[in-house]
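Thread: Newbie trying to understand structure tokens

Hi all, I'm a second-year student working on a class project, and my supervisor (Dr. K.) asked me to get a predicted structure for one chain before our next meeting. I've only ever worked with sequences, so writing a 3D structure as a token string is new to me. If someone could post the tokens and maybe explain what I'm looking at, I'd be very grateful. Here's the chain:
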Amino acid sequence: MIDKNTHKVAYILPNLFTASSIFLAVLSMIASINNDYDKAMILIIVSLICDGLDGRVARLTNTTSKFGVEFDSLADIVAFGVAPAVLFYFNLGQDYGRFGSLAMAVFIIFGAIRLARFNVTTGTYDPRFFIGLPIPTAAVVLGIWVVFYKHYFDGDTIVGVFIILLSFLLSFLMVSNVRYHSFKKIELHKTMMLKVLVILIFACSLIWLFPLEIFTLLVSVYVIYGLSRAIYNLYIKKIKKVG
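---
Reply by user tm_fold:
Sure, no problem. This is what the structure looks like when written as tokens:
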């Protein structure tokens, strides 16, 4: 009897993390509406942490279920589709009329398409890579750039247009075939451990000193790396065909 009750609690736990992710996303949207953009972005990041924990807890407790998978996808579209889009719109998008509304809508729609495709293709590709930019990454990139704009370029039309175009680019990357490293299977040799430790300490020190700037740089580099890698591979294939 105790074992059955324990299993029931274990089944609830991962779904509780998923529900927490949605709740934090709703709080983020309220913060965006109230013009508290820093808080909105922090809540999206905490929501991302909860989203990462639900799957891990489910695997550790052996409580993975079809319901959990579907619930997680619905949570993701709220937390990483709607919440960052609301942050984007109330901070910047509404200043650009229909163009801003379109950018917001496209980001949410393409995010939903990305999640649907991920659900039906899971297990059919190399787990070391994501096919298309993951929606949590797109959410963080869009949100962090919006907050960066608010801190350093508030009212700058050129930077504002850049971020709107960035939202369209992120939307496209989510449904594209561009590969991005998942970092799920990283093999580190013993000789590399010390170097990795030093790099991590240095990176954490910079994040402590300049959190917004370093996070903006890191997520931007990740997006650019995947895109430039895809362009390079297409260029190599074109050369081989010509040759």
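A couple of things are worth pointing out once you decode it. The chain has one domain: 2-186. The domain at 2-186 is CATH 1.20.120.1760 (Four Helix Bundle (Hemerythrin (Met), subunit A)). Feel free to ask follow-ups in this thread.
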